[in-house]
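This follows on from our talk about sequence and fold. Please put the record directly below this note.
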Amino acid sequence: MVIEWCTNFLDPRVSKDINISRALIILNQPFSARLLKTLWAACEWHSCADGGANRLHDVLGASGDPNLRTSDIKSRFLPDMVKGDLDSIRDDVKLYYTSLNVPVIHDPNQDSTDLMKCVQALEEKERITGREFEIVILGGLSGRLDQTVHTLSYLHKLRKTRKRVFTVTDDNVGWVLNEGEHLIHINHDALGQTCGLLPVGIDSTILTTTGLRWNLDNTESSFDGLVSTSNHLVPGQDVTIKTSKPIWWCAELRDR
């Protein structure tokens, strides 16, 4: 079976798919107000992982966008919850959100990260409502290397229990492709030309692709051998990937 993928949630001009429920988890890493607005509108449940609340609070205040006044923030950009061990959220930010009745939940468990805590909260919501959400993580692929590796590792594990988990920064979108065949519908208005296939968390994989400038044909990929970085999307074409092991797929976002 071919698994199909689409990233139209990255394009604010594309109407929201009412048949897909998405959850946004905001991490403690920089992002632009423009990207926030796009992802926020595409998701119906929003959470901040601890210090992600600082980022949400500050980027709205510093955006310089006249459409993002305090009244807009209150009505349009209030998260459904803030959750974590709360060692990063500032006191003023915590007071701001609690005063607006946003739950700020302290979870002291040091065996799970703030990202994992937010996913656990979403899974509890799914159990209660009987609905399944796609997850869009804002952040996770920049900043500290150990945190980036955690993102790579955690999404590699989540593939076993969740169908679709994306991570997005102002530079990239990425996700894990499980072993098998995949068709990635490319929105060339939202994505730039550069992409990559990364054999993270595996010894090696065998790759066959179409729709790339430098396609692979039953080619082995590993950290000790070939890694397809800085590949290019072909204008007007979608991408197909066949992989014998799980891999990371990433593509750059187009500058707007």
User: Anything to note?
Assistant: Helices lie at 33-42, 52-61, 70-76, 91-99, 114-129, 145-158. The chain has a mean pLDDT of 93. The first helix runs from residue 33 to 42.
